[in-house]
Amino acid sequence: QGIYPTITSSFRTAEDQQDILESKYEHYQKIGYSDKKAKAYAEEWVAMPGTSEHELGLCVDIASGDSRVTNQEVWDWLAKNSYKYGFIERYTAEKQDITGIIPEEWHYRYVGKKAAEEMHENDLCLEEYLQKAS
After folding, report:
1. What CATH topology corresponds to 5-133?
2. Catalytic residue among 26, 104, 121, 128
């Protein structure tokens, strides 16, 4: 279909997660934010070590693997089609108040075809799906 999704990040160690958090913190400091603001913004974008789905091996980040398509084109295709393969977009803007995580249209988690289809058909995030199932 002319879409070239590529896994750009998968399993991370706690040390890797810490490095990513520190890098984001330093970025915000360099562009002029106070230490307090830089820390707060970094923690909005990067999960604290010990809490990331990457550390548990439950997710992958996906982007374009080909210059013929943009990341956005890949993410749009995934949003419409990933459930057919058992994957869900883990953190959407519409469900941020439930997940507590900012939108990450590149962050996908495998839940199986049946669960992914039900979540897609009923517009459920994982938290809602699990609550409904219990």
Report:
1. Muramoyl-pentapeptide Carboxypeptidase; domain 2 (3.30.1380)
2. 104
